[in-house]
Design goal:
Helices cover 24% and strands 21% of the residues. The protein is an alpha/beta fold.
Length: 636
């Protein structure tokens, strides 16, 4: 039905290269430009409020056709705070739609709002800068967090529960007096907070956000902050200002900000604004007119089309420019084409060279609408040298297959070849040997939490054993070559156990009781021990470049299996001209003696304790306790 959209003739005639799509405000007037090449007529509807259905139309402003399929109009008055939609007629059918380039909206994102963006800047915004400027991705440590999870429960001690401002609050504590929220996170030693979707998504009613929950992988307005996270979703200024306040607060606390962006599909295919205005243009369909569904969300984005590509590139640049964002995690990036990702990186890096990019490079079944279009999958990592991919090999090796959660992984007792473990520890995957392309993880929002996945494989294990095995997994993950990543609450033995005793694998729309971070658990001894363990591991990683190498050749030279280690142990020797480090991992239920190379070794990780500074020395041999990691350092 929409095959013409992908022809060279359509692209040549209707690709618009300007940077003025949307509403450009000034005190003296607002200029509107809409891309609608198939439209017969177009107009702007100006409204007093942002609530769809309100009978408060101010007036309609006709638009004039302009170059490359765009329509334009100017309103010579100050429209700051005025809401608007586009009225577009195509083949006799008239639709009213939000502006795809809207920068803010009213409640539930149905009406865009003209906005003086400078007026939304918090005090000191002009001086706001990223605190993380290292060009080496392997210096980073990423913490994945849902805005609402951070503060939805009363035990958080946070005033603005479930809001942008909740995560920005300083000095918050639980009833035991232990730090929560931002206070807890900044002490961990991470460098970046990865925020699960914060753009305007359609699966939560912003007017009644407490009645439902969602992770937010349901895009409605890509350039607009989600209203349910603001203190007033009816006022388009508030969500923008409060999102900026959060970014500023995180930066002031030494943390970079990464956005989880979902350009691979939209919430409802034909209700999405661009698909309303240019019917079906944004989405792929096959030769039979059936929507492509590699995303399993009902539609796949046709990023290979020029104006879809432009929209995605413009959107990422907008977030980097307007909100000072430090990185982008691309959901199901394997559905997007390589060229789009290349253009994103090249354009963003012109002004923001520190910004990082990574995503899910799974090979999915999508019907691309043009020939010879390579997709951004792991196997094409060589085409995207500045883009990193999630390492599912690490995840499945350590905790067990994601497709059969009753099977154990290395940390739950499965026998894994040492060469396979060495490859994981070296960040040496079949699809890339480049450490800066490897995002190592053992848990994220998808699938079971680390604690629950181990519990599924070992149903007889008690909480103490589960905690030990979780810490063992963390040590391997956080000390391996590549970019360490972990889910918020993993350091607190996070569990999503239902009232019936089932470990919930997919909590994307479950209650706050399931998803909210249970800050009251910080008082539990095993949780306290695990939090300190994560802090120690991250500090140790930061203090030793052997854990943060960036060159694959150096990694192969400097990391190898430790000779003469007992068969029951997996032990590595990391060595350069400055120091040698032994990292050993024991998934067994008995302690094992490890013969050490000559010298006095300073122990930094042992029996569930981890610190950057050594806490004792050992020579000759060392006991690697059951279900634990051991790390010792020899200075040269």
């Amino acid at each position: 039905m929409y095959a013409d959209y992908s022809t060279d003739a359509f692209e040549e005639k209707y690709t618009y290269y300007g940077n003025d799509l949307g509403a450009a405000w000034s005190p003296n007037g607002t200029f509107f430009r809409l891309w609608a090449p198939t439209a017969d007529e177009a107009a702007i509807c100006l409204y007093r409020s942002g609530t769809a259905g309100q009978q408060d139309l101010i007036r309609r402003v006709p638009m004039t056709p302009d170059r490359n399929g765009t329509w334009i109009a100017s309103v010579p008055e100050n429209l700051n705070g005025v809401y608007y939609t586009y009225l577009v007629s195509v083949n006799g059918n008239t639709v009213e739609a939000c502006d795809p380039y809207a920068v803010t909206t009213g409640v539930n994102g149905k009406r865009a709002m003209v906005c003086d963006l400078e007026s939304t800047n918090p005090a000191g915004w002009e001086q706001d800068r990223s605190p993380i400027l290292s060009p080496n991705y392997t210096d980073y440590a990423i913490y994945e967090l849902h805005i609402r999870d951070a503060s939805s429960l009363a035990c958080s001690g946070i005033k603005h529960r479930g809001k942008f401002l909740g995560l920005a609050e300083a000095g918050t504590k639980n009833r035991s007096g232990l730090p929560t929220g931002l206070e807890h996170i900044k002490k961990l030693g991470i460098t970046h907070i990865h925020l699960m979707p914060v753009y305007d998504y359609g699966s939560v009613d912003e007017a009644n956000p407490g009645k439902s929950y969602n992770w937010g992988y349901d895009p409605e307005n890509f350039n607009v902050p989600e209203g349910s996270y603001s203190t007033n979703p009816y006022d388009g200024f508030v969500r923008v200002r409060e999102m900026k306040q959060l970014v500023q607060a995180l930066h002031q606390n030494g943390l970079g900000v990464i956005l989880d962006v979902v350009y691979n599909h939209v919430y409802h295919t034909f209700d999405f604004s661009m698909n309303q205005i240019v019917p079906g243009y944004f989405s792929r369909e096959n030769s039979q007119g059936i929507l492509s569904n590699g995303s399993c969300c009902g539609n796949d984005t046709a990023s290979e089309r020029s104006m879809v590509q432009k929209y995605i590139v413009d959107s990422v640049n907008y977030w980097a420019d307007e909100y000072h964002i430090d990185g982008f995690r691309f959901d199901l990036v394997g559905l997007l084409d390589v060229s789009t990702i290349q253009k994103i990186i090249a354009t963003v890096r012109k002004k923001h060279p520190h910004v990082m990019f990574y995503g899910e490079g799974w090979n999915l079944n999508t019907q691309v609408t043009k020939e010879n279009v390579p997709l951004a999958v792991q196997g094409n990592a060589w085409m995207l040298p500045e883009f990193a991919f999630f390492n599912d090999t690490m995840r499945d090796t350590l905790r067990g297959s994601v497709f059969d959660y009753h099977l154990p992984g290395f940390v739950s007792g499965a026998r894994v070849p040492k060469e396979s473990l060495l490859q994981c520890f070296q960040g040496r995957m079949s699809w890339s040997n480049d450490p800066k392309q490897i995002v190592n993880y053992i848990s994220c929002h998808d699938n079971h939490t680390l604690h629950d996945r181990i519990a599924e494989a070992l149903p007889q294990a008690d909480e103490e054993e589960l905690a030990k095995r979780s810490r063992l997994a963390a040590a391997f993950n956080l000390l391996s070559t590549g970019i360490p990543f972990f889910q918020a609450g993993e350091e607190m033995l996070r569990s999503k156990k239902t009232l019936s005793g089932r470990y919930l694998e997919n909590s994307y729309r479950s209650s706050d009781r399931i998803n909210g971070i249970k800050w009251n658990r910080l008082k539990e001894p095993e949780v306290q021990k695990t939090v300190l363990y994560y802090q120690g591991l991250l500090s140790l990683r930061k203090g030793h470049e052997l854990f943060r190498m960036t060159d694959a050749g150096m990694v192969s030279q400097c990391i190898r299996l430790l000779p003469n280690a007992p068969e029951e142990l997996t032990a590595f020797l990391l060595e350069n001209e400055k120091e040698a480090i032994i990292a050993a991992f024991n998934p067994g239920i008995c302690g094992i003696n490890l013969p050490l190379p000559e010298g006095t070794w300073q122990v930094c990780v042992d029996n569930g304790r981890a610190e950057c500074d050594p806490f004792f020395c050992v020579s000759g041999e060392a006991m690697v306790e059951a279900l634990s990691a051991f790390v010792a350092i020899l200075e040269k």
